[in-house]
Specification:
about 60 residues, DUF3606 domain-containing protein
Length: about 60
């Protein structure tokens, strides 16, 4: 099974008109409403534990 990369995900967000501020809002909402799901999603993207921790801290 092929992984979806962060770059692919970001490109899809941009293709539907999301800018950096909207993507930031999406992350904050995801972290607030479903922190475990956000963790799993970031793991699914293949991010390192350090990068995941930094993203989650930034969006908490």
């Amino acid at each position: 099974m092929s992984k979806v990369t962060v770059e692919e995900w970001t490109a899809r967000f941009r293709a539907i008109g999301l800018d950096d501020a909207a993507m930031e809002q999406w992350h904050r909402l995801f972290e607030r409403e479903n922190p475990e799901g956000h963790q799993e999603f970031l793991e699914f993207l293949g991010l390192s534990p350090e990068r995941i921790a930094a993203i989650r801290k930034h969006h908490a």
